[in-house]
Amino acid sequence: MPHTTAFTVPAIRQEVSSLWKLAWPILIGQLATVGMGAADVAMTGHTTPDELAAVSLGAAIWSIVLVTVSGIMMAINTLVAHEIGAARHGKVPHLVRQSLWKALAVGMVACVLTNMAALVFDHLMLEAHVAAKAKLFVHIISCALPAFAAYRALYGYSTSINQTKPVMVIALAALALNIFVNYLLIYGHWGMPKLGGIGCAVATTCCVWMMLLAMLAWIKYAPAYRATYPFTHWEWPQASAIGPMLRLGLPIGVTYFAEVSAFGVISLLVARFGVVQVSAHQIALNFSSVVFMVPLTFGIALVTRVGHAVGEANLRRARFISWVGVAMSLAAAIVSAACITLFRHQIAQAYTSDPQVQALCAQLLLFAALFQLSDATQVATSCAIRGYKVTRQPMLIQLLAFWGFSLPIGYVLGLAPQGFIWSPSAPMAAAGFWIGLVTGLTVAAVLLTWYLNRLSLERLRAAI
């Protein structure tokens, strides 16, 4: 491959085609995975507001931990992509085996921390039965975390060797199973117990373990994995391999935590305004997370594409791929922003039959439409940066954006506390927190775009 790539129309068209070919199965898989959470909220939304509130609060804790674990395990994507780009296929099996040991430790620690985090419900101004249901939801669903961490290790390995079809097929199967088990357990059909929102936790736990078993089977029998098959022999954990993975993955996990925890903490703070506010907020947030899968998918594909180019020592092409990927994410964001704005009332009605929740949700979805551009930009640029095997700087930027801007601004506007230099005359509740989110995402997008440009130019000049 020549080490020159100009921003010409044919070159851009070819890269768009290559990135889309890699990304579209991941997109379907990501949408199906997030669709499991959307199905939980939507199907519970047609029971009672109390059940929906309990699932929404439990899902807030679950989402924070889930996304953080996903980020910590994402180191395997970059490491395998670099080895494949450098044509060192023999090193990949060792990386995968050590990543699975890392997954076991990360999943167990995450399970313990998730159960401890559920204690927060005892200190919120919630009705006792809502708090109890939210805690039970978290206790049950935490059992899926070891399986999820291992699945993400294999997921990263598979996508980094350009095998994205398995993640699509497995996620679609899991979504179908999740909806079916939800149907049985939420409403008590076919003689099954009527568990309400707790049925969602049982269904999700079963589905995550199924996804891990299905991925193991696919890797074992599919010919595409033969050259890098990781299960040829037993291998004990090695600190010399797991240590660098943690140093690369922990900043990604903190980066993801910085963003999703800001959303999660806001869900907990909004809870004090009652069931209508927290339910509308969670529905808008849940739908936003579904839409977010499009730019996130381009980001995951960018880690592989940029990682391959960097592994080949083709820094000019790595920079070219990065900016084409960012542009694709922005184009998708423009479409999603327009769709959310036009169909916000229909979206709210699809989630809940409560008129008050529908009306407030439609208002919050306008904020969701507003931050589509900045959200797409920040996720695409941060993933491109990770393709260069750089993770600490994006972490610092995300921490500043979400904990230095989003939460403080949202706190002042949402709660209108006394003693600040300025605050609104009355709390803006959920709307105030969403204004804070828009601000934080914009700060992240601007700073990460600046850093990607600087990093890619520095690496290119150093290679010349």
Automatic annotation (TrEMBL):
Membrane-crossing residue ranges in chain numbering: 22-39, 59-80, 100-121, 136-155, 167-190, 196-219, 248-271, 283-308, 320-343, 355-374, 395-416, 428-452
UniProt subcellular location: Cell inner membrane
Entry membrane topology: Multi-pass membrane protein
GO BP: monoatomic ion transport
CDD domains: MATE_NorM_like (cd13131)
GO cellular component, one term: plasma membrane
Highest rank taxon of the organism: Bacteria
Keywords: Antiport, Cell membrane, Ion transport, Membrane, Transmembrane, Transmembrane helix, Transport
Record GO terms (molecular function): antiporter activity; xenobiotic transmembrane transporter activity
PANTHER family for the chain: FMN_FAD EXPORTER YEEO-RELATED, MULTIDRUG RESISTANCE PROTEIN NORM-RELATED
Protein name in the entry: Multidrug-efflux transporter
Taxonomic source organism: Janthinobacterium psychrotolerans
